[in-house]
Design a protein that fits this description.
335 residues, globular, 15 helices, single chain, mainly alpha
């Protein structure tokens, strides 16, 4: 029974993430094909506040979840972006997106929408600034784990490469090289997430709620969980509908999409322990601050329930999972 439950939990995580991961790998490939690496390096490698702010603001409108953003972050890092800029992008991007902001407004109102967007930007900036202060970072454009030599020569070596050649090189990079570079950490994160889901009892979380520790309970639930920016909204709405303060919804909307076991594993392996500590600390501090601010400013805000739960069709999830599994097997590169 334990083995079956564990397999089922891992499959659910993999199925939920697969569509977004494929979008992320595809997006990274397009970036690689059509955005010269020298531009990325120039704007995001300076190690200053300006590059961190740019990374945070660029990430806000992009419709990438906490797993879909991983391939793009890996690409930015390999092309010379500093740890601060990469962390800023990792935090601001999955928390928002035009679609999720509109959905947040429709279900939870303008105050929570504004707080969610501000928290995403400030958490990204805080993590980036702290990284620039405490992490001695240097990345060469030609570092190992960047683009393969054929992609580098085809995409970045000339301004006159045909569109079809750029697209082909970009897809080869995004769907093969990046898959190979990140697959091990994705699998580790899925296994860890599956274990958490079946081993941590609901009564453990309910204990914190009963003792008036709503904020820590929501953080404890949200940080390891995989939930996309839009998928987190019905959960946050349900928390408020049960009597939780609006601040609890803000915590879940910020910390849930920005983190999960896969992203944590990626940050630890690719950016280091210091970066992971800064990453998690920034999320906790900023989400708690904006939760408190929300409850202070909008404690009397009238909120009425009226939401529906949505998501991808199961057929899309199964198809995406199978496609991603095939890419995991086919991709060749250095794990």
């Amino acid at each position: 029974m334990f083995i079956w439950n564990f397999i089922e939990a891992c499959w659910k995580l993999f199925a939920e993430m697969s569509p977004f991961l494929l979008i992320g790998f595809f997006t990274a490939g397009i970036l690689h094909a059509f955005i010269p690496s020298n531009k990325i390096y120039r704007h995001l490698s300076a190690g200053d506040v300006k590059s961190v702010v740019k990374a945070a603001l660029v990430g806000v409108p992009l419709p990438l979840c906490s797993c879909g953003v991983i391939p793009v972050a890996e690409y930015l890092r390999s092309r010379g972006a500093g740890v601060g800029a990469v962390l800023s992008f990792l935090l601001s991007t999955p928390t928002t997106g035009v679609d999720s902001l509109l959905a947040t407004y429709s279900l939870l109102g303008l105050p929570v929408t504004i707080m969610r967007m501000l928290a995403a930007v400030f958490s990204g900036i805080l993590s980036g600034v702290l990284s620039n202060l405490f992490i001695n970072d240097f990345v060469s454009i030609g570092m190992n784990g960047g683009c393969c030599s054929c992609c580098a020569s085809q995409v970045n070596g000339s301004e006159h490469i045909e569109f079809s050649e750029r697209l082909k090189a970009g897809l080869k990079y995004g769907l093969f090289r990046l898959v190979a570079d990140t697959r091990k950490w994705i699998i580790i994160g899925i296994i860890a997430g599956g274990l958490i889901e079946i081993l941590v009892p609901k009564s453990f979380i309910e204990f914190f709620v009963r003792h008036g520790m709503v904020y820590p309970a929501v953080l404890f639930m949200a940080i390891p969980m995989y939930v996309c920016a839009t998928g987190s909204i019905p959960v946050a709405a349900a928390l408020v509908a049960k009597g939780f303060p609006l601040g609890a919804a803000v915590i879940f909307l910020v910390s849930g999409p920005a983190t999960n076991t896969v992203t944590i594993s990626f940050v630890k392996s690719k950016l280091g322990t210091k970066a992971l500590i800064i990453y998690l600390s920034s999320i906790v501090l900023v989400s708690l601050f904006f939760a408190l601010l929300t409850d202070m400013l909008f404690s009397g805000y009238s909120w009425s329930i009226g939401y529906t739960k949505g998501g991808f069709f199961s057929g899309v999830k199964v198809f995406s999972s199978l496609m991603l599994a095939v890419l995991f097997v086919m991709a060749k590169g250095k794990d």
